Request: fold
Amino acid sequence: MRAQEFSDEVEIKRMKLTSGSFALIVVAALSLQAFAHSKHDKKAHGKAQAQASKTAKGEFLGKGDGVETCPVTGEEIQNKDVNSQFFGRTVYFCCAECLAEAKKSPAAYIKETQAEQVAATKDLPKSEGHHGDHDAQNPKESGKQESKGAEQKFLGKGDGIETCPVTGDPVNKELKNEVNGRVFYVCCEGCADVVKKNPELFLKPVEGEKKEQAFLGKGDGVETCPVTGEPVDKDLKGEVDGQTFYVCCAGCIDVVKKNPAAYLKKAKAK
Reply:
């Protein structure tokens, strides 16, 4: 009987010891978690305070020109849907969140003139982007943005003579430029580069102006297809404006005949 009582006492003590150890482990784990969470909060709070401090001191934080790149992140602007008026001109952003950020403190991201904006951001390194996580979480929305970016629409704000085609601001007559044989003026050198990259988006064709045909040919029309650059099929022979050519498939014959100047170099006179 005494042996049984002694055995029971030992078991009870063992259970109490085990229970106490488990409680200590739980307390230690919770303490560690709380410490990590506190450290993370302090780090995030520190970053927010640093950003707020820079803004409060009037430090310029802009990273892009507001036309081709976002003023807040420096990312390339995929479409022109997100924009607003700042200091009398239209400024474009990569997303609604960046627009909202700029509106909180306009002077921190936007200079009073486009020329000042370009000068302040032209030497900054290219942004690696900050929307990767958003796109991964919402691929449908990302697909929509890519689709919008593919649809190019006319973006000109001025006539290129008295007003800048990019910003609509009065031009600087000393900044004379030319693209595809067309003379135009801009408000700053940055806008000249923007127009030259995509003239059709910023300059309206002048009435009676002959648009220069871009050459698209990839082959000589004898051994390689002028449309695809692939080896030709000698059974597929075409002729346009007295010039004979060969292609890789029947469909390419129709393409060349519709726009021969874009795919065939004029044969040299013998």
Q: What stands out?
A: The longest strand covers residues 83-86.
